[in-house]
Amino acid sequence: MAARRQTKEGKPLSQPDQRGPRTTKRGDQVAEQIKGWITDGKVRPGVRLSKEAELQQAFNVSRGSMRDALKALEVQGLLRLSTGPEGGATITEVPLERAFQSLQHYLFFQNIGIEDIYAARRVLEPMLAEGAVAHLSEDDFEAMERSVDVCEPFAASHEHALDQRHEDIHFHDVLAAANPNAFLRCLCQIINQMLHKLVVVAGNVTQRDYQAFGRTTVAAHRAILEAARRRDADAVGRLMQEHMEQAEAQLRKVHAALRQKLVLDSDLGLHERRNKSK
Question: Which of 51, 62, 79, 99 has the most CB atoms within 10 Å of its CB?
Fold first, then answer.
């Protein structure tokens, strides 16, 4: 059969359906039909499809077309392919990194700058943080506390200072993960990915200016953390609004810019992740 899990009606997935245009390549047709299975709930994340040869026979396509279909779905983040006796194609949820990569490939051809990111961030981050407060666990508070602690005392070296700035963003990742609004969470997490991967600081910025940025950020994060521990959502939203305005001003002082680039799998560690699954 084409998949090892049965349908909701209890019938095995023995044959592909006949949806999809007939003028496209056979591999593309197969990929579209497997997407249809996912859409219809016939296969869900964690379900392993049958072996490649069985899929090839079920879809009545060549080995090359079947591999093209599976590879296309892997690139889209809908499948994980592994080799070995227990290998094969497993349905997966699309990872955030892949969503970020696709969006950045679109934005590469647009004129996007730091000011554009913060125009959105000033609106989204206070809303995200305020909505996360009621859902923060003790583990979340500890993670936020560790994030603040990592950024104090302030780094002597520029390289260590950059590591601390990445940890600053992790503070926001913790808040994002706690917010139950999946769409808002996704938007803010993708923005955080952009800040992690694409923001660069001018080489002539003094250590004094960079450390001033760090001090301002740590003070803001500590105030937000204290308000969150009190479960004061209104205060968290207000403090986050102030923090976003301060952060944008500080980034201007260190002449930060958004580096326009196509994001490679290697930038996101996707190559390494795939290799571990093989």
Answer: 79
Nearest alpha carbon to residue 60 among 19, 22, 12, 16: 16
Q: Is residue 88 classed as helix, strand or coil in its secondary structure? A: strand
Residue 107 lies in a domain: no
The residue assigned the tokens 């994002």 is 176
d(CA 187, CA 61) in angstroms, rounded, equals: 39
Of the candidates 93, 92, 103, the residue with the CA atom closest to the CA atom of residue 192: 103
pLDDT per residue as tens digits for the range 194-219: 998 888 887 777 778 878 888 899 99
Distances from the Cα of 194 to the Cα of 51, 91, 159, 262, angstroms: 37, 27, 19, 12
| Total domains, the chain | 2
Strand, coil or helix: 260: coil
Same domain, 136 and 36: no
- Return the HEC string of 185-220: HHHHHHHHHHHHHHEECCCCCCHHHHHHHHHHHHHH
pTM beyond 0.85, yes or no: no
Phi and psi of 255, rounded to 5°? 55, 45
The phi and psi torsions of 169 (rounded to 5 degrees) equal -70, -35
Residue 206 lies in a domain: yes
